[in-house]
Amino acid sequence: MRYGIIADIHGNLEALEVVLRDLSGKVDQIICLGDIIGYGPNPNECCEILRNKKIPSVMGNHEKAVLGELPLEWFNPNAAEAVRWTKKEILPDNLEYIRGLPLTFEYPEFQIVHGSLINPVEEYLENLFDAIPTFELMTKPVLFVGHTHRPLHLNYKEKKIINPGSVGQPRDGDPRPAYLIYDSEKKKADLYRVNYDIESVQQKMKIAGLPTFLIERLSFGR
Ligand code: ZN
């Protein structure tokens, strides 16, 4: 099986569309690692694309926050403002969809979670040291995580933790949306980047009144 792994879409419709176009015909299934919403101007459209295309997803911290299950104090002020904005915008059926997202999910060859197996929506896995307790809990040889918005590939005792980076708000210094293709027979993960129309998302964010910092960071991928 060939899987397209995407994460941290964050309501960035332009980025999601470009990634899905790039993936089309290349994989058997696409899977999302959470944070479909938050930051970007199109939370409903992004939820609807995942629902219509039957792309399964786990829950991210932004979904938890919009459901009122993660306090806004958890977030920095700009992120909290984006959560409040998304909460106002999100339609009831998309909120119900979000409520139904699992924290973790197991496929025959791998597991998926937004943050970590220790704390599924909150913990950031940035390095091997942070990841060891999660490695110990893994029941499959591969775990895909998101949340940091930075691609990462860790190895420990024949197991791998892989982060595909972010579709909608990359933070590794490269503003291009990232995604991964995982070939489960060859046990091979390849990262891809695509170009998209950043200015039109930024324009929509401005009109929506989202924080300037969140608008500007898209240009730098930071
Ligand atoms: Zn995120």
Explain what the structure shows:
- This protein has 222 residues and is of the alpha/beta class.
- It has one domain: Metallo-dependent phosphatases (Purple Acid Phosphatase, chain A, domain 2, 4-Layer Sandwich), CATH 3.60.21.
- Helix content is 35%, strand content 18%.
- The chain contains eight helices and nine strands.
- The strands form two sheets. The chain has a five-stranded mixed β-sheet, with helices on one face.
- The chain is globular, with a radius of gyration of 16 Å.
- The mean pLDDT is 97.
Attribute tags:
222 residues, Purple Acid Phosphatase, chain A, domain 2, 4-stranded mixed beta sheet, 8 helices, 18% strand, binds zinc ion
Strand content: 15-25%
Contiguous helical run count? 8
Q: Examine the secondary-structure arrangement and name the CATH architecture.
A: 4-Layer Sandwich
Main sheet characteristics: 5 strands, mixed
Radius of gyration: 16 Å
Helix content: 25-40%
Q: State the strand order across the main sheet.
A: 3-4-5-7-6
Q: Output the CATH homologous superfamily.
A: Metallo-dependent phosphatases
